[in-house]
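Can anyone check this?
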Amino acid sequence: MDRVRLICILAVLALVGRVSPVYGQMPGPAVDSTYFSTQTDLYSEAVRANANFHFIKVIDRRQITLLNAQTLNDLLRYHLYCASYYLGAEGYNFDFMQTGRRNVRILLNGQPYWQASIDQIDLSNLLLVNVDRVEILYGASSVIHGSNAVLAVINVVSRNPDHEVVDLHLNGISSAAGEYNFNGEIKVNRPRHHLALRAGRYFHYGDQGADSGRVYEWKPVRKFTVGSEYRYLILPKLYADVSVNYLNSLMKDHAYPFQGTTRVTDRDINQEIFAGGISLNGKLSKYHRLSFQHNYTSFWQRIDRFEKILDTEQQRISLAEETGDNLHYDQYWSSLTMRRNNRELRTNYLVGMTYTHQRDRERSGEALKSRSAIFSGFGQVTYQVNPTFMLLSGLRLSRSNGFRTPPAFELKSTYFMNRNTSFRVSYSHAYRIPTFNELFFTYEDPELNIKGNRNLASETYSHLNTLLSINSKHVRFNSNMMWLNTSNGIQLILIDYPSRTYSFRNTRNSRIMTQGIDLELEFGNWSGNFGLTNTGINQFPDAIDNYYFSQEIAMSAMYSWDASGWTLASFMKWNSSRNELRLNTDEELEDYQLSAYSVWDLSVAKEFKGSGLLLSFGLKNLLDVQRVSGGYLPIDRFSNEEFNKKVPVNIDFGRRVWMSLQYNL
C-alpha cells in the first residue's frame, strides 16, 4: 500500500509541474558537453540532462590509447566497481559491484547493443574500434533505460564527425603475448552528408601454460568487426541516421574441468552479432527536441565440444565424444522520445515510449513460443525550486506478454551549496527482466533436469543514493554512498528431489551497501585520478552479520611534455580478497573464495606533430599476476558432471610488452 501511495505522489508531482514565467539563468554547475552527447541519440541526451543528479565518469580516447585497451572488457576492469574473470572458452565474466553483469545496461551510441535477456554477454567481444569515449553513469536509471539499468549505464560513443572533408584513422597494435590488432576508419563529410566506414581485427595466436586451475588454455583466436554510419542533414537542426555493425569472434578452450581426472574438453565457441539501427533526431523548436529510433540486434552462438578420455600417462585417447549446441536470439527495439530543455524555465520534461520484441529463434518452433514483447511508457520532470535546489521525478510503466514487470520510478534532488559544491540524494525503483535461460531453459537427463519458468516476475531493486561533489579549477571530488535492496531475485532451486529437477524461481533477496570516492586532479601538464570503494553484500537480509566486504583502489597518473609531444602514464588497480557464503541449488551453504590481485600498467606515447603519427608502447601487468584462486558455479548445457560444481576462475593478466602506431590524416 505504501508503494502505491509513493507511485501516486510521484505521478501527481509530474502532472502538476507547469510552465512558469521566465526565471533567469540557473547557477548550477556547468555540465561537460561530452557527457552522453552522442550526435546520433537524444535518448542518451536525456541522461546528459540528468548529470545534475548523477555521478558520470568519462573515459576518453587518451586513456583508451595509453591503456592499450582493445575491448570494452579490457578498459572497464581498470576502473572502480568493475572486475573481469576469464572462464576459458566461455569468455570473460564481467562483474560490476560484485553482482555480475546483468545489473548494467550496455549502450552503443545510446542504443542497446545487447538484448537485456541474453545470458551470454561477453564484453570482450566489443572491440574499441575508433571509439571516442566510454561514459559510465552510476546509479539506477530504469525510468529512462528500462531493464538492467540498476547499478549503472555504460555508453560506448563512436568518434564524432568533424569538419574535414576526408578523415582517415589507422591503428596497428601488437604485443609480446601474440596479440595482433589492426583497425581503421574513414569519414567523408559534405554539407548535408556524412559517411563513416570502420573495421577492426583482433587476433591471438594462443598461450600455453598453467595460468589457471586448468592444464592449459587457448585464448581468443580472433575477433573481427565492421561498421558503417550514414547521416543526412534534413534541416539545420534535424538529421537522419543509419548505422550497421557486425562482429564475429572465435574462442578456443582446452581444459581439464576437474583436477586429478583424465577427461579433457576441447571447446570452440563461435559468436556473431549484427546490430543495425535508424534514427531521426533534432530540434522541432528552440527548446524542443524529438528522437525516433529503431534498432535490430541478432545474436548467434555455436558451441562445438569434444570430450576425450586420456590414459594415465595422458598420451593416448581411449574415448571421444562430440557434442554441439546452438543459440540464436534477436531483438527489435523502438523508441520515441520528446524533450524540452529550457534553462530559463523552472519546469522541463521528457516523455517517451519504447517497444521491445525479443525471441529465441532456436526454440521458436515450440508450442509455447520462446519470445517476449514489452511495451513501456515513461516520463520525467525536472523542477527548479529556487536557484540552489532542483527536483527530478520520473515514472515508467511497462507491460509484457511473458512476465510481470513492476513500475519503475525515481525521485531525485540536488542542492547547490555554492557554484563548486553540490549534494544529491536519490531514491529509485529499478528492475531486471528474466533472461531467456531463466524463462525457457530445458535440460533433460536421467540424473538431472533443468526447467525454465515462464511465470517468473522481474527482479526489483530499491536504490538509495547520496552524492557529494566538489569541483574547482584543478580538483574534482565525488563521494558516493549507495544502498540497494533486491527482492524477487531469480535463483535456480531444487523443486523435486527424486527426479533431481531444478527450476528458476523468484526466491532470492539481498542487500548491497557501498561507499566510494573519486578524486581527479589536473595541474598544467599533469593529471591524475584516485578512487577507493568498500562494498558489502548480504545475500541473507534477515541475518545482519552475514555481510561480506571487499575493497578496491584505482589510481592513474599522466604527464605530458607539450613541446616534445611525449606522454608518460601509469595505471593501477587493486582488488581485495573475497570470502562469502552462497546458497547452492540444493539450498546448502558453501564457500566462494577469491584471492586478492592487482594490476599495474606503464605506457609512453609520442605524438609526431604535423605528421599525424602517434606512437605508443608500454608494459602491461608489471606485477605479472597470472593466477588468482577462485571458483564459480556453472549451468552447463552438456554434462551433469559439471553441474553445481566449482570451476576455477582465472584473472588472466600476463605481463607483456605492447606497441601501437596510429595515423590520422
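Reply from J.R.: I decoded it. Residues 2-16 form the longest helix (15 residues).
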